[in-house]
Amino acid sequence: MSLNHMENMPLSHSSPQGAQRTSWKQWVLYSTIIILLLLCSFGTLILTFLPLKTANETCVAKFGPLPSKWQMTSPEPPCVNEIADWQLRILQNGLYLIYGQVDPNTAYEGAAPFEVRLYKNEDIIQTLTSNSEIQNVGGTYELHAGDTINLKFNSEHQVLKNNTYWGILLLANPQFIS
Known about the structure:
- By secondary structure, this protein is of the alpha+beta class.
- 15% of the residues lie in helices and 36% in strands.
- It has 1 helix and 11 strands, in the order αβββββββββββ.
- It has one helix spanning 24-49; strands spanning 52-54, 60-63, 71-73, 80-84, 87-90, 94-102, 116-120, 123-128, 135-143, 148-153, 165-174.
- Strands 1, 2, 3, 6, 9 and 11 form a 6-stranded antiparallel beta sheet that branches.
- The radius of gyration is 31 Å and the shape is elongated.
Protein backbone atom coordinates (compact mmCIF):
# COMPACT_ATOMS: atom_id res chain seq x y z
CA MET A 1 0.00 0.00 0.00
CA SER A 2 1.39 3.36 -1.00
CA LEU A 3 1.14 6.60 0.99
CA ASN A 4 1.53 8.86 -2.06
CA HIS A 5 -2.16 9.69 -2.14
CA MET A 6 -1.98 11.00 1.47
CA GLU A 7 0.58 13.69 0.60
CA ASN A 8 -1.97 15.72 -1.32
CA MET A 9 -4.75 15.53 1.29
CA PRO A 10 -5.41 18.58 3.48
CA LEU A 11 -4.88 18.15 7.22
CA SER A 12 -8.04 20.00 8.17
CA HIS A 13 -11.31 20.90 6.56
CA SER A 14 -11.02 24.27 4.87
CA SER A 15 -13.38 26.69 3.24
CA PRO A 16 -14.17 26.21 -0.40
CA GLN A 17 -11.39 27.40 -2.66
CA GLY A 18 -11.52 31.19 -3.26
CA ALA A 19 -13.58 31.97 -0.11
CA GLN A 20 -11.79 33.84 2.69
CA ARG A 21 -12.60 33.61 6.36
CA THR A 22 -12.29 36.82 8.34
CA SER A 23 -9.71 36.61 11.03
CA TRP A 24 -10.32 37.71 14.60
CA LYS A 25 -7.93 40.63 14.05
CA GLN A 26 -10.15 42.07 11.32
CA TRP A 27 -13.21 41.57 13.52
CA VAL A 28 -11.54 43.53 16.36
CA LEU A 29 -10.51 46.30 13.95
CA TYR A 30 -14.01 46.67 12.51
CA SER A 31 -15.58 46.59 15.98
CA THR A 32 -13.20 49.30 17.20
CA ILE A 33 -14.02 51.52 14.23
CA ILE A 34 -17.76 51.13 14.82
CA ILE A 35 -17.40 51.93 18.54
CA LEU A 36 -15.32 55.06 17.78
CA LEU A 37 -17.91 56.24 15.26
CA LEU A 38 -20.67 55.76 17.82
CA LEU A 39 -18.68 57.69 20.47
CA CYS A 40 -18.05 60.58 18.05
CA SER A 41 -21.74 60.69 17.16
CA PHE A 42 -22.69 60.70 20.85
CA GLY A 43 -20.20 63.52 21.55
CA THR A 44 -21.64 65.56 18.69
CA LEU A 45 -25.14 65.12 20.10
CA ILE A 46 -24.00 66.28 23.55
CA LEU A 47 -22.33 69.40 22.12
CA THR A 48 -25.43 70.10 20.04
CA PHE A 49 -27.85 69.97 22.96
CA LEU A 50 -25.56 71.45 25.68
CA PRO A 51 -23.81 74.29 23.85
CA LEU A 52 -21.56 76.97 25.26
CA LYS A 53 -23.08 80.32 24.48
CA THR A 54 -20.49 82.89 23.53
CA ALA A 55 -20.60 86.05 25.58
CA ASN A 56 -23.03 88.57 24.09
CA GLU A 57 -20.92 91.57 25.05
CA THR A 58 -17.19 91.76 25.53
CA CYS A 59 -16.12 91.60 29.15
CA VAL A 60 -12.43 92.41 29.59
CA ALA A 61 -10.33 93.60 32.52
CA LYS A 62 -6.62 94.47 32.37
CA PHE A 63 -4.18 95.67 35.01
CA GLY A 64 -0.76 97.12 34.25
CA PRO A 65 1.76 98.01 33.17
CA LEU A 66 2.28 100.51 35.96
CA PRO A 67 1.56 103.30 36.55
CA SER A 68 -1.90 101.98 35.90
CA LYS A 69 -5.19 100.99 37.37
CA TRP A 70 -7.74 98.41 36.26
CA GLN A 71 -9.07 99.06 32.77
CA MET A 72 -12.46 97.39 32.28
CA THR A 73 -14.81 96.95 29.38
CA SER A 74 -17.78 95.29 30.90
CA PRO A 75 -21.43 94.70 30.03
CA GLU A 76 -24.28 95.19 32.49
CA PRO A 77 -24.17 93.29 34.77
CA PRO A 78 -20.35 93.19 34.87
CA CYS A 79 -18.48 89.87 34.81
CA VAL A 80 -15.65 90.92 37.17
CA ASN A 81 -15.10 93.33 40.03
CA GLU A 82 -11.82 94.95 41.11
CA ILE A 83 -10.76 93.97 44.65
CA ALA A 84 -7.24 95.44 44.67
CA ASP A 85 -4.22 95.92 42.41
CA TRP A 86 -3.49 92.56 40.73
CA GLN A 87 -6.73 91.00 42.13
CA LEU A 88 -10.28 90.47 40.74
CA ARG A 89 -13.52 88.81 41.86
CA ILE A 90 -15.50 86.85 39.24
CA LEU A 91 -19.18 87.84 39.09
CA GLN A 92 -20.44 85.53 36.29
CA ASN A 93 -19.92 81.82 35.69
CA GLY A 94 -18.11 81.18 32.45
CA LEU A 95 -15.08 80.16 30.47
CA TYR A 96 -12.38 82.83 30.85
CA LEU A 97 -9.07 83.50 29.16
CA ILE A 98 -6.44 84.82 31.57
CA TYR A 99 -3.46 86.41 29.84
CA GLY A 100 -0.42 88.35 30.91
CA GLN A 101 3.27 89.04 30.77
CA VAL A 102 5.80 89.08 33.59
CA ASP A 103 9.08 90.90 33.09
CA PRO A 104 11.64 89.86 35.73
CA ASN A 105 13.98 92.42 37.22
CA THR A 106 17.35 90.85 36.39
CA ALA A 107 19.10 93.39 38.66
CA TYR A 108 17.19 92.13 41.73
CA GLU A 109 19.62 90.73 44.31
CA GLY A 110 17.34 90.16 47.31
CA ALA A 111 17.20 86.97 49.35
CA ALA A 112 13.77 85.84 48.13
CA PRO A 113 13.86 83.45 45.15
CA PHE A 114 12.06 84.66 42.03
CA GLU A 115 8.50 83.36 41.99
CA VAL A 116 5.30 84.71 40.49
CA ARG A 117 2.06 82.85 41.22
CA LEU A 118 -1.40 83.06 39.64
CA TYR A 119 -4.08 82.13 42.17
CA LYS A 120 -7.70 81.05 41.86
CA ASN A 121 -9.11 81.60 45.35
CA GLU A 122 -6.40 80.08 47.60
CA ASP A 123 -5.16 77.58 44.99
CA ILE A 124 -2.09 78.19 42.84
CA ILE A 125 -2.99 77.58 39.18
CA GLN A 126 0.34 78.66 37.67
CA THR A 127 3.85 79.42 38.93
CA LEU A 128 6.67 81.19 37.08
CA THR A 129 10.21 80.70 38.37
CA SER A 130 12.54 81.78 35.56
CA ASN A 131 13.99 85.23 36.14
CA SER A 132 16.06 85.28 32.96
CA GLU A 133 13.38 86.23 30.40
CA ILE A 134 9.94 87.75 29.92
CA GLN A 135 7.31 85.06 30.52
CA ASN A 136 3.65 84.65 29.65
CA VAL A 137 1.11 83.85 32.32
CA GLY A 138 -2.44 82.56 31.99
CA GLY A 139 -4.58 80.05 30.19
CA THR A 140 -8.25 79.14 29.74
CA TYR A 141 -10.17 78.41 32.94
CA GLU A 142 -13.74 77.68 33.99
CA LEU A 143 -14.51 80.20 36.71
CA HIS A 144 -17.55 80.64 38.93
CA ALA A 145 -19.20 83.65 40.53
CA GLY A 146 -17.37 84.42 43.77
CA ASP A 147 -13.96 83.11 42.65
CA THR A 148 -11.03 85.47 43.16
CA ILE A 149 -8.09 85.63 40.76
CA ASN A 150 -4.84 87.35 41.61
CA LEU A 151 -1.22 87.57 40.58
CA LYS A 152 1.28 87.55 43.47
CA PHE A 153 5.02 88.18 43.49
CA ASN A 154 7.45 86.69 46.00
CA SER A 155 8.91 90.17 46.32
CA GLU A 156 7.51 93.37 44.81
CA HIS A 157 10.98 94.29 43.50
CA GLN A 158 11.46 91.05 41.51
CA VAL A 159 9.44 92.25 38.51
CA LEU A 160 9.58 95.32 36.33
CA LYS A 161 6.04 96.56 36.85
CA ASN A 162 6.30 99.03 33.98
CA ASN A 163 6.38 96.03 31.62
CA THR A 164 4.29 93.50 33.62
CA TYR A 165 0.53 93.16 33.16
CA TRP A 166 -2.32 90.67 33.26
CA GLY A 167 -5.92 90.59 32.19
CA ILE A 168 -9.00 88.43 31.84
CA LEU A 169 -11.55 87.96 29.05
CA LEU A 170 -14.94 86.22 29.29
CA LEU A 171 -15.09 83.78 26.36
CA ALA A 172 -18.38 81.95 26.93
CA ASN A 173 -21.22 81.39 29.37
CA PRO A 174 -22.40 77.78 29.81
CA GLN A 175 -26.08 77.46 28.87
CA PHE A 176 -27.67 74.18 29.82
CA ILE A 177 -31.07 73.18 28.50
CA SER A 178 -33.35 71.98 31.30
